[in-house]
Design a protein that fits this description.
The structure is a homotetramer. By secondary structure, chain A is of the alpha/beta class. Chain A folds into 2 domains: 8-196 and 304-361, Rossmann fold (3-Layer(aba) Sandwich); 200-301, Dihydrodipicolinate Reductase, domain 2, CATH 3.30.360.10. The first copy, chain A, is 40% helix and 19% strand. In chain A, the strands form 2 sheets. In chain A, strands 3-2-1-4-5-6-11 form a 7-stranded parallel sheet, sandwiched between helices. In chain A, strands 8-7-9-10 form a 4-stranded mixed sheet. In chain A, strand 1 (8-13), helix 1 and strand 2 form a beta-alpha-beta unit. At the B-D interface, loops of B face loops of D. Strand 10 of chain A pairs antiparallel with strand 10 of chain B, so a sheet runs across the interface.
């Protein structure tokens, strides 16, 4: 069975952010055959028979607190070199359609009731088979049990209340608040998270198993992330950054099985805009005490790295929902820095798990 | 079944080179419990039940054309920061024992007959269960069918003639000359190769699958290797380097399934001594045409990277010999840049193949 | 005395190349106040009183062998991220005016007579005070005495024949052929060269004096340059690259006063387009034999680095011409990799020489 | 006049630290002709006629709070690859002589009176012409007016009380406390500081003028310093690091004349020992808005970089003392991150100032 037709709502929390804007533009461009599916995992041959919704079957809406319309945001991304100006012209209709489905978001302390209604209304008005809510809003400070529920958890609860599936693309707590996760299980809804693995951590998680397999002893693994844009401004705040640093730092020591010294910084460098640069320095010991190093510099565009994964996750989680899967989807660990329920941080092992799972979906409902 | 006692000869072609010297020192240090087995793949838990010969059961000899004794070579390595001076003192006895078993090597054009006799004599005089010949000599220029057999092939033929197994740790043709490979099969002997994957290529082969799994399009992959020592002087010769460059270049395009532009240089920089530094620059395309880059710099000690793999291979091939395996051992692809019979260049997939195979050995003869 | 009004012809050899196109766009944008003079040395305060022609007084023409018009070339540069699309629209008139003054260039073997006539006609038709010819064409293979004169020398000879000044922005031999240099002296014309110092060599020439001043001993200095575009394709040819590599390699050993091992590569990596990336690795020795390294990676846009220097040189050489200077201008060493008559490779010393000279120009004719 | 014979005491505050130990070993090795003067600025030809004390005329003593003797410290440095083991054997006598002149240091709150007596006793007992006190102790937290005098200021005051000259090789406040600086002036004593410019900042101060001279606009300059040893442990404390970060950060914006965004980190990575690695990322804008980057990685040995400068400064300040100079020596800015009274951060301009000054010394008393 190939790509199957079912109209799927993709409700983006942070719908006017860079990642969301790139995702909406990209889905339209892919549906229209305007671009090649570069960066799209679910367009690899391994997913051809998984019965995923086509890009043209994705319908976008979302919540946001800021008022700059999607067309304007797309224009700004094109000015920043993320998208071609020509492409923005070509998908203007789809940007307007998505813009018409954006509703005001919530701040900490707001009541969540309206959120679920927004979702139910989106599904019924547009005649969608199902809706997947994807959180691509700004990272929140770490959540501690007993705190009032932060917006990410309100959105996740609203998703489950309205019988939608849910994806945590940020390190915010979201569906991981126990009461919210239980709600998903009760209502038989699947969800996935947390924190999209788009750049430096992807490389770390790829390299760390190499040291393990060669019995080389990693002595320290230091890293610095320079980024601009809204993400830079938000993560430049040390309190907020703590959430992200925690999910980034686990990968190395959990893969190697021993603690590794590792200063890890996230800095706001506004002139970099949507582009981010990470430098990592790995000091390791080899045979007979020889001291060696590996350094890498990753220079990427944050929204171009994240947006196709948002589309991949929306397609996969919507498909899992249709197939009747419920609760956290550990098989999607490949996409996340801090994967819920994952057995390994190895990128390659996670990719095999994902492909095996996708193969199984092909024969599901 | 744990580590089993069987006395195994390790006959090093290039027995007075840096890699061989480090391997002899290291085996003695490991046997004596003087160092931790850092860099030793076969000391990982996955190999505990494979029935490999213990480090203390390895007995060294070899061929070489140069006359500087092993003790002196070890001293020079210690001066260069590769080994601790203290360690050289501690393993002086073992260095002398190995030195006593080094015989003159052959140059292109020499008759090979004596080589097999040297091997047979080594085995019988020292009462060894079996002998594995490992080529760690200087890389030869590329071999073309019809050329006279180069030394690497003479050594491989001598190994098989004398009922020894064989490992090609260099890119030289060795056992891959068809008539030589057939001899191994006729006589039921296992062999492995080619070209130890110790540094830059290990990182390349680890990273390339990441780009594939994420559907990112690699547009170019350029690299430069700076190295000193005898290896630098030898590979700084463009004719000789061609062998090595060819085995290094395959990895990326064979992993990705499409041709990738990739200038690749090996340069002799004498002041670096045993240390080598490689820089790679990967230019890749992401979603909607975004252009991104990954760079890495690897700074390692060549002999410290190679020597433990030589010991790993000697243990594994000797064990395969005892288990009755014959012909090229594709399961050892993990160790090689240009692995004979390998199904994949993915380091992680190769490691799984290796571990599965080692697990199977545990129940073999 | 501030910027003085005198209409100056800038005749670009390679007038439809990326550097020339960027220079024409940039001069128009600067004249119109559309952009800040970033990258423009002659807009620093030290040059305010030198009496240089204003950007609006520069009138462009040139020779080229290719037929793609300037407007189209500017469009392609904008697609490649070198210029803003908006800017191309704003300077369309100036691009067309320059396009109307482009004449067919010569190949090796052509007679040069027509070239001088093209220059004289340009000056008289457009009523220019004087004309400076700037060679920004593709690099030629090295010239040996006795060879037929290559195009760069034909252009230089034509410049001097037509009473124009001349700038060698490439490593081609140009005005350095003795008979051509003598012609300049005979006719009292100034010229400058060779090989614009835009990227890696600028950094090398800045860093090398630091090692000298600190008495640190550089043991090797290796470098690799990855570049695309026409320059990449041309310099990817090893014969041609030899000219450029020779001018790049001198800097370090001439600054330090002793020979330094230094593999140096220039590679064509087409996907990089106008962008070039250089990596340098410096191995040096410190106190009591300590071994240390400095690496740098420079990622720049070739035409954006070169174009403002072309404008700087045109302004300065035209001014020198007006002031009656004749022969090679050693004071412009700051701009060149292989500066004619220079006393030092130190970037800072060259900058002081330049500023001192410019100050002297202020009181000249 | 060449190197003149006058016996000069060098009193090291932090006399058993890595820098001090390397300085003592190095002076002995240089005096004995055992090593070349690599890293020794004052051995360049420009200083040949300055009348500096010879290495053999330097006599060492100092204060320290830790009790590990110099011989043991030198042994540890050799184990860490900083010095050759052989060298330690060769200078054992000199290490013991210096060890015999080490007195207990002070902590915050101690009375300073004894310190001046230690200095006077050292000078008289050993018959020294003069003594220069050099602070190479751990960096202190920032000093605010009104705080009790920290040890660095107590040592500086003691130096001046005892008619010694003084060098602040750390960012600690030392002689910059106004009352202490006034004491130096009153007593006609020279001093120099602050914070030896040994690595990353040396490279920054070398590169920043290049951007200025080329009119390139630096948009951000981020940096991270990884270091181990006692310095790493001390500077890993954010309060202490503030002193050092402040002196490092000034260089770029003061050179360029406009504020530059620049996250700057110092991290303790214990496994690096005496070695430190810094990575800097410079984002800059060129012509017509083109965005470019320069990255560098500096991997050096802290004590091998600092020790020869300590010797240079001791020789120069002792010579200035003899020549009757008084107060802060702005001409020594070349050696410092935060140079007292300096007119420029340009390394090359500072080097010229230094050489000019040294030339003047040759004809002084």
């Amino acid at each position: 069975m190939g790509s199957s037709s079912f109209r799927t709502g993709v409700w983006l929390v942070g719908a006017r952010g860079s990642v969301a804007t790139s995702a909406v533009c990209g889905a339209a461009a892919l549906a229209g055959g305007l671009v090649d599916p570069v960066g799209c995992v679910t367009e690899l041959p391994q997913f051809a028979a998984a019965g995923l919704p086509a890009y043209g079957d994705l319908v976008f809406g979302g919540h946001d607190l800021v008022g700059i319309p999607l067309e304007k945001r797309a224009q700004l991304l094109a000015d920043g070199g993320v998208l071609a100006h020509r492409l923005v012209d070509q998908v203007r209709g789809e940007l307007r359609a998505a813009e018409a489905e954006i509703r005001p978001g919530v701040s900490a302390g707001d009541g969540p009731d309206r959120l679920a209604e927004d979702l139910a209304s989106f599904r019924s008005r547009l005649g969608l088979d199902r809706v997947v809510v994807v959180n691509v809003a700004s990272t929140e400070p770490p959540y501690r049990p007993g705190d009032p529920l932060p917006p990410s958890a309100l959105y996740a609860r609203a998703a489950f209340t309205a019988d939608c599936s849910y994806v945590d693309f940020t390190p915010s707590v979201g569906a991981r608040v126990p009461a919210v996760a239980e709600l998903a299980t009760e209502r038989g809804l699947p969800w996935a998270g947390s924190d999209g693995k788009t750049g430096e951590t992807l490389v770390k998680a790829t390299l760390a198993p190499m040291f393990a397999a060669r019995a080389l002893k990693v002595r320290s693994w230091a890293g610095i992330n320079l980024l601009g844009g809204g993400d830079g401004a938000n993560l430049g705040d040390p309190t907020v950054a703590r959430s992200k640093i925690a999910s980034k730092a686990k990968v190395v020591s959990e893969t190697l099985g021993y603690p590794v010294t590792g200063p890890l910084h996230i800095d706001d460098v506004p002139d970099l805009g949507e582009w981010k640069t990470a430098w990592d320095h790995v000091s390791f010991e080899g045979f007979l005490g020889a001291r060696m190093t590996l350094q890498f510099t990753w220079a990427g565009c944050d929204s171009a790295l994240a947006a196709p994964l948002v589309l991949d996750l929306a397609r996969l989680v919507a498909r899992a929902h249709r197939a009747g899967r419920s609760g956290p989807l550990a098989e999607l660990a490949f996409f996340f820095k801090d994967p819920v329920g994952a057995r390994t941080h190895s990128v390659e092992a996670q990719f095999r798990d994902l492909c095996d799972w996708a193969a199984g979906l092909g024969s599901a409902a």
